[in-house]
Amino acid sequence: MAKYKRILITGAAGRLGSRLRGGLAHLADTIRLTDVNPIADLGPNEEFVQADLDDLDAVVAACEGCDAIVHFGARADEDKWQVILHSNIIGGYNVYEGARRGGAKRVVYASSVHAIGFHKIVDQIDAHAPHRPDSLYGVAKCFMEDLSRMYFDKFGLESVCCRIFSSFPEPADRRHLWSYLSFDDCVRMVEASLRAPVVEHTILFATSDNREKGFDNRLAGHIGFHPQDNTEPFRAAMEAATPEIDPKLPRFRFLGGYMTELPHPDDAKA
Amino acid sequence: MAKYKRILITGAAGRLGSRLRGGLAHLADTIRLTDVNPIADLGPNEEFVQADLDDLDAVVAACEGCDAIVHFGARADEDKWQVILHSNIIGGYNVYEGARRGGAKRVVYASSVHAIGFHKIVDQIDAHAPHRPDSLYGVAKCFMEDLSRMYFDKFGLESVCCRIFSSFPEPADRRHLWSYLSFDDCVRMVEASLRAPVVEHTILFATSDNREKGFDNRLAGHIGFHPQDNTEPFRAAMEAATPEIDPKLPRFRFLGGYMTELPHPDDAKA
Amino acid sequence: MAKYKRILITGAAGRLGSRLRGGLAHLADTIRLTDVNPIADLGPNEEFVQADLDDLDAVVAACEGCDAIVHFGARADEDKWQVILHSNIIGGYNVYEGARRGGAKRVVYASSVHAIGFHKIVDQIDAHAPHRPDSLYGVAKCFMEDLSRMYFDKFGLESVCCRIFSSFPEPADRRHLWSYLSFDDCVRMVEASLRAPVVEHTILFATSDNREKGFDNRLAGHIGFHPQDNTEPFRAAMEAATPEIDPKLPRFRFLGGYMTELPHPDDAKA
Amino acid sequence: MAKYKRILITGAAGRLGSRLRGGLAHLADTIRLTDVNPIADLGPNEEFVQADLDDLDAVVAACEGCDAIVHFGARADEDKWQVILHSNIIGGYNVYEGARRGGAKRVVYASSVHAIGFHKIVDQIDAHAPHRPDSLYGVAKCFMEDLSRMYFDKFGLESVCCRIFSSFPEPADRRHLWSYLSFDDCVRMVEASLRAPVVEHTILFATSDNREKGFDNRLAGHIGFHPQDNTEPFRAAMEAATPEIDPKLPRFRFLGGYMTELPHPDDAKA
Amino acid sequence: MAKYKRILITGAAGRLGSRLRGGLAHLADTIRLTDVNPIADLGPNEEFVQADLDDLDAVVAACEGCDAIVHFGARADEDKWQVILHSNIIGGYNVYEGARRGGAKRVVYASSVHAIGFHKIVDQIDAHAPHRPDSLYGVAKCFMEDLSRMYFDKFGLESVCCRIFSSFPEPADRRHLWSYLSFDDCVRMVEASLRAPVVEHTILFATSDNREKGFDNRLAGHIGFHPQDNTEPFRAAMEAATPEIDPKLPRFRFLGGYMTELPHPDDAKA
Amino acid sequence: MAKYKRILITGAAGRLGSRLRGGLAHLADTIRLTDVNPIADLGPNEEFVQADLDDLDAVVAACEGCDAIVHFGARADEDKWQVILHSNIIGGYNVYEGARRGGAKRVVYASSVHAIGFHKIVDQIDAHAPHRPDSLYGVAKCFMEDLSRMYFDKFGLESVCCRIFSSFPEPADRRHLWSYLSFDDCVRMVEASLRAPVVEHTILFATSDNREKGFDNRLAGHIGFHPQDNTEPFRAAMEAATPEIDPKLPRFRFLGGYMTELPHPDDAKA
């Protein structure tokens, strides 16, 4: 197979990043890892560059010589504005600048359902639906999708923005029965995003092949992402654990789940 | 699994209703049956309440204490206006009033292809297509879909309107090769409609997984209905029995089949 | 101009019906009026047939010999189910049966914004939007739109369903600034609907040419309805009379206005 | 099964035509073959009529007595205007005139991706997308799709226009990984197009069931075409053979591939 | 104003072509006229080149040195295949080749409603609607729209395809009340098409500003065509002359009018 | 008329802000102005609060007691990332936080064509089209549109995002003939945005009523913005000044004009 020379994984010490290391190893001569935290157990074709995403120079240096970037770093939940601003917005911008200056061809970006969290599950939206973020976190995801759109239109840098719904070791609540993305399917998604011959700027909805679906992924057919897992093994236990669903509550009606009900993060007591 | 306390099945002595009794038994502590005709062979978790759908008080009483209603009662074919008016329109209204007054959370309603029967099969409509009923029967189905839409928007009562195409013991004519819904798939459809966590007001097209398809069901992905049967076992015999298809005839072109060619039912001789 | 032989106006003694008598006089040799109440002051080309819409035989007799029907009769507000059922549903059915049996070519029907009252003004819907009635009254309007669709598809009887928003002597509240239809524009609308060469089954949104608009009427371009009035003369007084708008209230957000907030009419105390 | 009496295959000596002979044999009492070149090895239910598509009288004669026509003849690549004009445009017109005059009920036409070759793969178009031909060859395919649309609307002659992407013995370049249609799937496609009960005028996108997809075929669900092959067995070799993809090049971005980059065929040196 | 150096008008001796001569004179230093018939009365900035559109060399010569081409030549009604083929298809191809080889920047092409004549007036189509030609003449118009699309996508030659509905000295039948394009509005349309800064490949629907409209022209807003005439002065006489409209007849229902009812032109007796 | 108590204008010393002061005076008891630069000439119902948008506390203080905010402050052209980040992104966030904390009901925000600058003029997009920013400046506008969407969905704060195309004293180049928004129309736009009874979250395209249009504004009909000016008085001079348009250049094809061709602002030499 045609390999990349060097793939950079940001957030490589994180929950998903650490799973991607092994899964993507066969796609490149070298996998470069970066994280704000050190990574000790490097594999044979792995290398590590420590960097805070907030530091443009460090990020540019980490991107140097990488023809593909898998950007899974940054804060992965709602947080105060200063955290989101520095980790997700400034950090995200820095990664795209690193990609552009370093001559990368493609970025696979861990976007999120929270970019469109205020759409209803019954509306079965597709990738043409306008942004409706449900949180500051979601607004930052929108920012990254828009930024990457401009980096493709203007600079020719391709991106796949994978709107991950719920990626955890296993489903943790009732909503996850339809929103869950298994770690293995997450790796399949990134691999497909890296191997597809042309992606330009693609929005991909990302769950496993669960029985109930909350979106229409037909506009990403050229990625060739075919999830293999589903949540049926967890169904009985999950349904039993959530005997009462109130369909009027935002957490059930909207794609974004509980995040649609969170208050402004800067209102919370420290 | 999270069970309903009591599911009411209307038309429980009918062709489809009688199949639903067994199929839904595991979903509730009690299955209450209602029909204008008596039902003798009650199972261990079944109870029976006799009621004419046309009688509001009787229907309200039947709905009392039911948290879900599977409304499969009423006249199941084109008929004179007075029959459709009383059985399908007034009877249907009574069921929704029963549901609302009794505090039910969800109704699964046996709507029909005849609500959109004058759309063409080649147009591959989805649930956003406007109503185009093909008969008084179809107009009554539209009435019920619109009524249930209002009961959700105003009163929060959820509904799944299942547009059943052709549900019989087995395919009976050439059109059924694509329009057939097996009884087992019909049960799967109702079960999925009852188990889906949020349905708000959903329109579901309902056939088995036949080779040829006449609609686009993507807007009901959150129901998780996956038919398991298909009509291939019947194909050779059916095709042989219908050597000549005239694609200009409404019965072949339109989703509603023969019903699009029926005269006004009140013009027929008594 | 090509005249109709005889136009029937139902509800001819009502608020709008009485305005239509003069406005349509030049379009037919004879204007036949019908109402449950008597009309005394008949003009030279007018004739009167008393009929309760609920009475099929009487309605059929009234329609006899009419090549066009302007159906503005029936209850014009939310009401108890039995009223809506008899006046709007059964009465409306009777008018279409009268039209069909009497050989009329076209019906102009006073439908209503309340057939789509739960759509939001900011969504700027067009005639392809699904029904979202806001009341029993609205459900009956949906019923009539669906019934007339079938009468065209099956029997070739043309209809223009005019979704009247707010037609009163003058604007009466803040919402009317965008929803108002003057009586003169209402007459223009019916005249255009009668004169357009082909209408098949057309949905027309009907307000005056007000500064703010709540819908997209482009799908009715073949009707040639061009309202001439607007609410600017009433603006200053109306805005002063409604100093506080709460955009979260259904009465302001949704097309249907206050009717979206009404309780079920049968819950009200007698 | 209900058989056709006589199916005519044009271009029966060609790459795809010769594969169709065996595949369609069971669908008709007689398979009539036509080609500008002679065919010697006729099977038991085969007959041969030699004809140049450019010759109206010969084509009309070949169509005589055929109730279905599988039109796979004509130039199968970009070529000079005079070749395209005579083989594809005039020849194609002659086949439709032959079908009409001979009373055929249905034509299955080998249209091509090149009718919409200037749409981008990432746009995932469906059959409603406007024509965007990429070559004179593609313009001729558009002509045939439009001509056949008129022959249905006016004369009731049904057509399935199969937009074949890349049908070869096996995938020959990187783009074929998503665009390839195996010969066996091609036969399945024609069989489904002949057997579907009603097709009116249908546009069908035609590739095998490859991992990556470049279009949305939902509008052809009534054809019942389910490809069984895919290109995974060829993937490793193909990816290795195309190490560098430049997503800015038309040959990769657009559905039509290399044909979007060809100069005008009449500019080429003889 | 920025002038063109030389505008070529084809069909300059024809009904519309002769009106364009004066109307476009101020837009170019030189107006070159071409027609198969001689033109004697040349104005001061006019020049004439006689050419049969069917003759590629002659057409190429006529196009030489022209930076814009207004292609209004060719047969302007339904006709036998050989006429349409030579005058409209081959002739039209020759004009685009002339434009391409001569380095023209823009073509304004007299397309026709007959390219979409089998769409219904009540469907209010826009420029995204697929072709539905109503005649061989209409198929040739589709061919030209598709050819010009390719000449823009591949060679950068801009086109405005003006779908002229009914352009005559004055309205001649009832349908013209909505379909009429006055000669003055026709000139305005061509002028706007020539002056708009960017047109790429634009489809423009072309009638005067008549009271009833049969299409949605919003996708051509960048052309800036604002018709100034309408058919109201002709209405009374026209309506009187067409007392009976049968909305079931194709000539009234479909955009293409009478042409939808014509038989195949080669079936007609000589 | 119903007045606001206090409207805050940000950027009140700027090009557009200074024009808004007078134009909005009649809409509120008090107009509060804010800018990083001092404003000396306060009118009778004006008050001034100096604030740098980058300073959250200062902005929150400025918003205190204002029931509407007209946010026209921040950098108004492409600039280096640090400028855009602080002035447009952080500054914009601060204004929305100020609005939320201060209890404002509505924000009118000066968004920009550059949020969708990479859409083509010939595509005639509407407000449902996805973001396609053409610059860092455009990305910041997208950020603000997304942020304000969330502030409405979650906190109920209404916004009108006015995508201003080109607002200058008069048209300055050829593109402005269609993209120009006069200062008077800009004031009309803000006034309409403040007076419309319900806006939820509205996207409004903003030019004067120019002959050529580059977008479809029908989704903002409820705002009631009717521009009164146009660029015809400037046309002759502008067309003469731009004799050559190359329709292949991004600056002419795309809505965003010259900004689509700018390099990354951080690549420019200081």
Automatic annotation (TrEMBL), chains A, B, C, D, E, F:
Keywords: NAD, Oxidoreductase. It comes from the Bacteria. The keyword tRNA processing does not apply. GO terms for molecular function: oxidoreductase activity. Residues 7-168 form the NAD-dependent epimerase/dehydratase domain. Belongs to the NAD(P)-dependent epimerase/dehydratase family. This is NAD-dependent dehydratase. The lineage of its organism: Bacteria, Pseudomonadati, Pseudomonadota, Alphaproteobacteria, Rhodobacterales.
